[in-house]
């Protein structure tokens, strides 16, 4: 009986925690369908009394930001391009570097690994100025290269994949070599399929990191057509004479949907990749 009541109590507490976590999300989505006067009403409306798509219409109206129209579709495309490019590169570099650090024996291997770990400990603000000066010297300001290049390598992804691959049996790789498989064939047909959980977790983390990045994208973009969605929506709301809460909620909702889609696509690998990769080291 005690065990049964403990299980019920655990489920109740988890339910309360889930509702607390989902409440801001619900408020954001419902607020995106409210007019400004309804969104600012006190006490607040928990259910939109006069739902409207006006905020989304204003958000996706074509034209220039400074002419009063909002090129949110261009911002959305920019964000998707940057996030997908960063995620693809992070998965590729993490897989290659993780395999080398886990299964190859070479001089300085541990030094390289701990150097990668050390980069994870540096505050993001420390590298902003050197990165910006480098981007200016390369002439990449207001370009996709400036938005993508600093994130092509994902140190946490390398660490996670390396820890995961450390647990792969060396005997399987040795057997493939005896059968005449080359290094790339072993990597492509044996190592990568076994590492899917870790790579799925890397894809989620890198995509979310690139999608939610704001400060760096704000620094290296000046033209409205190069803004990403977080920067564009922030600039849009700040240029209005009065704060439009419904429009801001619509922009936040649009920014949330791609992250949800990526998580749904890779969620079956996510928990396994994190838990198994954390068991060793």
Write the layout of secondary structure elements.
Blueprint: H1 2-31, H2 36-39, H3 54-59, H4 72-103, H5 109-121, H6 124-138, H7 144-148, H8 155-165, H9 170-178, H10 183-194, H11 196-212, H12 215-220, H13 229-239, H14 245-277
What descriptors fit this protein?
MetI-like fold; 73% helix; disordered C terminus; mainly alpha; 281 residues; single chain; 14 helices
How would you briefly describe this protein structure?
The protein is mostly helical. It has helices spanning 2-31, 36-39, 54-59, 72-103, 109-121, 124-138, 144-148, 155-165, 170-178, 183-194, 196-212, 215-220, 229-239, 245-277.
Structure description:
The structure is a single chain. With 281 residues, this protein is mainly alpha-helical. It has a single domain (71-277), classed as MetI-like (MetI-like fold, Orthogonal Bundle), CATH 1.10.3720. It is built from 14 helices and no strands. It has helices at residues 2-31, 36-39, 54-59, 72-103, 109-121, 124-138, 144-148, 155-165, 170-178, 183-194, 196-212, 215-220, 229-239, 245-277. It is globular, with a radius of gyration of 23 Å.
């Amino acid at each position: 009986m005690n065990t049964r009541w403990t299980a019920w109590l655990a489920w109740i507490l988890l339910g309360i925690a889930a509702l607390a976590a989902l409440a801001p999300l619900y408020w954001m989505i419902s607020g995106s369908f409210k007019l400004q006067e309804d969104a600012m009403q006190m006490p607040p409306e928990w259910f939109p009394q006069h739902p409207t798509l006006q905020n989304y219409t204003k958000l996706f109206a074509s034209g220039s930001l400074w002419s009063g129209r909002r090129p949110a579709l261009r911002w959305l495309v920019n964000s998707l391009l940057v996030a997908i490019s960063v995620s693809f590169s992070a998965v590729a570099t993490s897989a290659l570097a993780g395999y080398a650090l886990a299964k190859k024996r070479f001089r300085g291997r541990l030094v390289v690994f701990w150097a990668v770990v050390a980069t994870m400990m540096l505050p993001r603000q420390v590298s902003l100025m050197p990165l910006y000066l480098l981007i200016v010297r390369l002439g990449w300001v207001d370009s996709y290269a400036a938005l993508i290049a600093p994130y092509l390598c994902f140190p946490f992804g390398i660490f996670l994949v390396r820890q995961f691959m450390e647990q792969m049996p060396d005997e399987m790789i040795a057997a493939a070599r005896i059968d005449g498989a080359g290094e790339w064939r072993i990597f492509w047909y044996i190592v990568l399929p076994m590492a899917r959980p870790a790579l799925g977790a890397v894809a989620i983390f890198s995509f979310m990191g690139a999608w939610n990045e704001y400060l760096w994208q704000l620094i290296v973009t000046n033209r409205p057509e190069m803004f990403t969605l977080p920067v564009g929506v922030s600039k849009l709301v700040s240029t209005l004479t009065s704060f439009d809460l419904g429009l801001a909620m619509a922009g936040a909702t649009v920014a949330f949907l791609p992250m949800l889609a990526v998580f749904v696509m890779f969620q079956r690998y996510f928990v396994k990749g994190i838990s198994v990769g954390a068991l060793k080291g």
